Amino acid sequence: MKSFDDIEDVPVPDQWDDIVRRAEDGEIPLVSDSDRRRARWPLGVVAAAAGVMTIVGGLAAIDRSGDQQVATVDTSTVDSPADPSPAPDLPVLACSGGELSAGSVPEGAELGGAPLYTASLVQGTATWAWFVGDQQVQLNVPSIPWADEGHPADTVDEPAGTILHQPASTLFVGSSGLPAEGGCDSYDVMVAGGTPDEEASLARDVARSLRWEPVDIFSRGGVHDVATARAETVSSVGGIAAEPGRLESAVIEAPYDERLREVLDAEVDPNAPVYISVVRRVDGGSFVGIDADPAAWPDTPYIVSVVVKGRFARTLRSGFATPDTAADIVGEPVDQAGVDWVPSLTAPPPGPPAE
Amino acid sequence: MAEEPIVDRVRTAYESTHARLWRSVLAFSGSREIADDAVAEAFAQVLRSGDEVRNVEAWAWRSAFAIARGELSRRTATGPVPDVADEPMPEPAVDLIRTLRQLPALDRELLVLVHIGGWTPSELAEITSTPASTVRVRLYRANRRARALFAQGVDR
User: Which of B62, B97, B130 sits opposite A62 (nearest CB)?
Assistant: First the structure.
């Protein structure tokens, strides 16, 4: 059986001389011509772009925001790598899954148009730029890297993200909630012009205006969208029922206890809900189960809920996990037609397995 | 006490973490070329940035993986990534990389960070301001998928 230790047999090159040479040569061009337009971008700011907002990809999809809301749009106008609109010297949008909706980009935003600076460091970053009055705005997807180098940073809840106050600009760095594989998991809105408060205000306004396709439950925002959904009122449910074809995901929502601690090696508060995605959407309206093994924690009460557009949920099944119920959950596609939608908050308490 | 010059700090970090970082990026990307470029560029960024960088090692890891991820994404979008068999390396390592390639990128990165990079879930949680439980859940799921692949071998 293979082991991660096998990689230890690969000889590692000595790269020190190459590193020093690169540092001296400054091979990677970080500053665009637009610096001429806005001279108060010091190199230090560019250097700030050389860190990374998120931990490397494997963690990039993990929620860190707490209660982010993920808005939704249709997918009919989706950018793809084949989109001929990007400027030739800018990276093509790397969202291979097509999650980034062109319709979500603020009016006036031009892909690759006169950015504050070009995010050439991370290949695949797509950049939109535009003006709002005298303020220049740049949207980067995924977020261009930045480093914590002592500039003031504020965590904000609405929209969820981080405000980074740099000497010549203000960034709002947020999570789209999209999978990292598509390259759209993170974004930042960079504003230059005005006071720091004015820049932050506009950056947050732009961030609020963005619309992203819904999420895998383990992407940023996914879990917390469920939490948000549970706080919604029943009065909105009718709208969901009238919109078939929007089934997105589902979760197992189970109270954490010692059995889950053993299974998940997790450290969470007793009785805190644990969410585990169990399905993926197929054909736009049905879903099939994936990677779910409730039998791994037998006799744990659980609720399987269907998440609709990250906002509402319907209890699909509740009971005590057994191999049989796991098969019920995972095995068969489920059609959402005729679903009696209710917010998961109002779901009945766990009971015996449904027949 | 005067702060250590940036070159010395980078050199110290290079000596302590370079091998782990390079192998981790190699396992993630499956490309020696990407690993070479991403890791060298990450350390070079630190040198260029001077004393603004407070944690050289953390910067290098984050930047190297970000660059590798971007490059991998770009190559995937423009054509197939070269097969790892073309890389001069021991056969068990080739098998490992081929196996890892069957995993989702998120799983693959998390696995190499932990199992090759040596990061603990708690450390990763702290770095990312992510609940440790979330990291562990993801790791649990990734490990499970990896074990299944490791057990069954790679289809060639």
Answer: B130
E strands in B35-132 = none
Residue B87: which CATH number? 1.20.140.160
Using DSSP's 3-state secondary structure scheme, residue A280 falls into strand
Domain encompassing residue B111: 6-155
Partners of B47 on chain A (C-beta within 8 Å) are: 19-20, 23
Contact A265 B71 (CB under 8 A): no
State yes or no: pLDDT of B30 exceeds 70. yes
Q: pLDDT digit string (tens) for B67-83?
A: 887 777 667 666 666 66
Q: What is the mean pLDDT of chain A?
A: 49
Q: Does residue B54 lie within any of the structural domains?
A: yes
* pLDDT band for position A106 (cuts 50, 70, 90): low
In a domain, B1, yes or no: no
Q: How far is CA B27 from the centre of its chain?
A: 7
Cβ of A266 within 8 Å of Cβ of B136? The answer is yes
The verdict on a CB contact (< 8 Å) between B73 and A124 is yes
Structural domain total, chain B: 1
* Cα gap A175→A160, rounded to integer Å: 8
Helix/strand/coil for A217: coil
How far is Cα of residue A210 from the mean position of the Cα atoms in its chain? 12
